[in-house]
Design brief:
Chain lengths: ~80, ~260
């Protein structure tokens, strides 16, 4: 499909992918918040788990990045 | 692909925030344009571009720190040597903690990855610099190298029993084929997320900084507000640059652990 209507739909779709960013934000916030509440209960064990914190954040963030990928595909590849 | 011209620029055209807001033209994606350094318009495989230049500078910086900076091998380290030792022991401890002691023999590869990504991210923050890691082409090569070497390594070390990585023994029997399918998909999607995470984080940060810098030009007397915002963003970007290098390396360690110990 060509023309203005298709372009409009594409831009709307690109905007909608920002919702995925919100999902990733909820996930990352959940992980960081739970880590903090656990770390405040047992500060001695916190230092050893920071690597797990970052791995968890990376995995949660990956799904937000997929929405970014969809936006890129819509903008430049479709 | 209808509106794409042939040639090197990856992001062009539709990206200005622009015309609608009355003469204010911000082109946040122009900084990511690949262009030849020594004239000419076409980019071939062996053309020297700004990417080539900044990758060479990255390697020079790593060499300067790790080879030249710690050449003295003093018992009481100099400043540059202690920074190099800090980086060395940081990566060494990461591999020991995440992957296990038997993965230490892959230390040179992981150290190389970390130093390259780290310095590429940091050098990209220099004003007017080109951020090589903001291009998916660059990070995809890094991530594919990790993916292929880890997969080959898994089969070489474990043989066919590497496939047990996808066969979840603790699940009910009826669920296992479904889980195996999901595990295979999530395994194959790893290089995608591995590369786009780094490129996306770097590109997004730099584009946002550029947009705010464009506001400063448009606001006239109130220019200091977006300039302060850019300063704050810059501090955040420094943090992001370090964290993304760390995350890239630690995920390499996690993938390597799957190759060395595929049994859940």
């Amino acid at each position: 499909m060509e023309g203005e209507l298709a372009d409009m739909g594409r831009y709307i779709g690109v905007g909608l992918t920002a919702i995925g960013m919100g999902g990733a934000a909820i996930g990352v916030g959940n992980i960081a918040g739970n880590f903090l509440s656990g770390a405040l209960r047992n500060p001695a064990a916190a230092a050893g788990q920071t690597a797990m914190l970052f791995i968890g954040i990376a995995f949660a963030e990956a799904l937000g990045i997929f929405s970014f990928l969809v936006a890129l595909l819509l903008m430049f590849a479709v | 692909m209808k509106s794409r011209r042939a040639g090197p620029p990856v992001f062009e055209g539709k990206t200005d925030v622009a015309e609608a807001s009355g003469g204010l033209v911000i082109r946040p994606m122009d900084q990511f344009e690949v262009r030849p350094l020594f004239g000419g318009d076409t980019v071939g495989i062996f053309t020297i571009t700004n990417v080539t230049l900044w990758m060479a500078l990255t390697i020079a910086a790593v060499t300067l720190l790790m080879v030249v900076g710690s050449r003295g091998r003093a018992l009481v380290p100099t400043r540059s040597q202690s920074v190099a030792e800090l980086a060395y022991s940081f990566v060494y401890k990461m591999i020991e903690d995440v992957t296990g002691r038997d993965a230490v023999r892959f230390f040179p590869y992981i150290m190389t990855l970390f130093m390259f990504v780290f310095f590429a991210n940091i050098l990209g923050l220099v004003p007017f610099a080109f951020t090589t890691t903001s291009h998916i082409a660059v990070t995809a090569v890094l991530a594919l190298a990790v993916f292929i070497s880890v997969t080959v390594l898994g089969f070489v070390i474990n043989g066919a029993s590497f496939l047990r990585l996808f066969w979840v023994d603790s699940a009910p029997l009826a669920l296992r084929p479904v889980l195996a399918l999901i595990e295979v998909i999530s395994y194959c999607v790893r290089p995608v997320s591995h590369s786009i995470r780094l490129a996306g984080a770097m590109m997004a940060g730099h584009a946002v900084a550029k947009v705010f810098a464009g506001f400063a030009a448009a606001l006239g007397a109130a220019f200091f507000v977006p300039v302060l915002a850019v300063a704050a963003l810059y501090a955040l970007e420094l943090l992001v640059a370090v964290i993304q290098a760390y995350v890239f390396t630690i995920l390499t360690c996690v993938y390597l652990k799957d190759a060395l110990h595929p049994h859940h």
